[in-house]
Amino acid sequence: MSFLQPNGPVIDLGVNIDHVATLRNARGTVYPDPLRAAILAEQAGADVITLHLREDRRHIKDADVIALRPQLMTRMNLEAAVTREMIDFACAVRPQDVCLVPERREEVTTEGGLDVIRYCKEVEAAVKQLQGEGIRVSLFIDADQAQIGAAADLGVPVIELHTGRYAEAGQDQLAHELERIRAGARFGVSRGLKVNAGHGLHYQNVQAIAAIADIGELNIGHAIVAHALFAGFENAVREMKAIMVASRLAAGASTLR
């Protein structure tokens, strides 16, 4: 329980520490240490530590995941592609959560949601293997009713809606993209899913997403790591969490008027 939420959760913040490892790997040093970042994030109010072990190991490495797993006081949310290597590794480490994501080696960052319909058999096999190890599985998908329905049909308890289109939208498309996220979250909850969201969220655009009552958790990394260069890591996490909580509470208050 965070000091920002003395009476229980309002909305959870998952802090993605990938880009701490990106900075470390740029010079091939042992610093900055993703483990230290994770611990500082927890102390500052993070509810989840998120990290993506990519196939090319461009930031987080196997040793990072193994070192972090026993040290975290909150939850580890390991993002992983639907491959035998990644699923087997996740089952060996046994994080509390695994979020299955699409992955292309040439992309700078994840460009869209997992196509659950097209890759249904592969996703279903991965879900069964992970759930067999007691791991909660989430699917990172677009806010599309067909994809959300397919995820629910596979028996996953959680989805994470890709907010990249919202984050990149111009003023003429912003309202449309926000409503698409709202509708997707609403439909996910109606199917019995816990709905999370993330991708491209930062200190100036997170407010509207955090205000959506059907969303339980936001996963944010790049913006926090970037802001930490100027504000310090703990302050960057605290600021993001405070913005999220304030946005949710304000939205709740407005519905009571």
Automatic annotation (TrEMBL):
The active site is at H52, E79, H199. One of its GO terms (molecular function) is pyridoxine 5'-phosphate synthase activity. The keyword Acetylation does not apply. The record marks E160 as: Transition state stabilizer. It is an enzyme of class 2 (transferase). It comes from the Bacteria. Pathway: Cofactor biosynthesis; pyridoxine 5'-phosphate biosynthesis; pyridoxine 5'-phosphate from D-erythrose 4-phosphate: step 5/5. Keywords: Cytoplasm, Pyridoxine biosynthesis, Transferase. 1-deoxy-D-xylulose 5-phosphate binds at D18, H19, R54, H59, T109. Its EC number is 2.6.99.2. 3-amino-2-oxopropyl phosphate binds at N16, R27, G200, G221, H222. It catalyses: 3-amino-2-oxopropyl phosphate + 1-deoxy-D-xylulose 5-phosphate = pyridoxine 5'-phosphate + phosphate + 2 H2O + H(+). It is found in: Cytoplasm. CDD domains: PNPsynthase. Belongs to the PNP synthase family. HAMAP family: PdxJ. Homooctamer; tetramer of dimers. Catalyzes the complicated ring closure reaction between the two acyclic compounds 1-deoxy-D-xylulose-5-phosphate (DXP) and 3-amino-2-oxopropyl phosphate (1-amino-acetone-3-phosphate or AAP) to form pyridoxine 5'-phosphate (PNP) and inorganic phosphate. This is Pyridoxine 5'-phosphate synthase. It comes from Massilia aquatica.
